[in-house]
Specification:
This protein is an alpha/beta fold. Helix content is about 35%, strand content about 20%. The protein contains 6 helices and 5 strands; from the N terminus they run H-E-E-H-H-H-E-H-E-H-E. Helix 5 packs parallel to helix 6.
């Protein structure tokens, strides 16, 4: 009898893709989940903070200003999926030290710095991201970046 169930990594990455569908970003839908001991600690998707208008409603500031992907991260209404996952864990009192991040995209350099300091142990990502500093930071911090696909 062949086991047709998905592996744990396939399972968590498929959940990450479902989480991304909640994104309110007009450019890229990103989902992230934090997992430890095969248990989901927190999820996040990219979009504006609570009580702030979403780009779906008011348009994309980055598009309006012609800002290329991977640059000037501060000029955006939204938070990244990884940031939202970290915030959700903190808001509900869950430590994420020692967890694994599953993300539909490779984290940017800002998210990478947060993930390093949060003591994430491993990162699985599906698609790349135009921010080469993130790779350098993760290599220096010795956090494995594993392309899933």
């Amino acid at each position: 009898m062949t086991d047709t169930r998905p592996s744990w990594d396939e399972y968590f990455m498929s959940i990450t893709e479902l989480v991304a569908q909640r994104s309110t970003c007009l450019r890229r839908k990103v989902g992230a989940i934090l997992v430890r001991d095969k248990r989901i600690i927190a999820t996040g998707y990219n979009g504006a903070p609570a009580k702030v208008s979403h780009c779906l409603d008011v348009g994309c500031l980055r598009e309006q200003r012609g800002i290329p992907s991977g640059e000037r991260h501060e000029l955006c209404r939204g938070l990244h999926a990884e940031q939202n996952a970290i915030i959700q864990a903190a808001l509900h009192g869950f430590s994420i030290a020692g967890s694994t991040l599953y993300c539909t995209n490779m984290p940017c350099s800002i998210c990478s710095k947060m993930l390093i300091n949060a003591r994430i142990e491993k990162i699985y990502y599906k698609e790349g991201y135009a921010d080469t500093l993130s790779t350098l930071l993760m290599e220096e911090a010795r956090i494995p970046l594993l392309h899933f696909g």
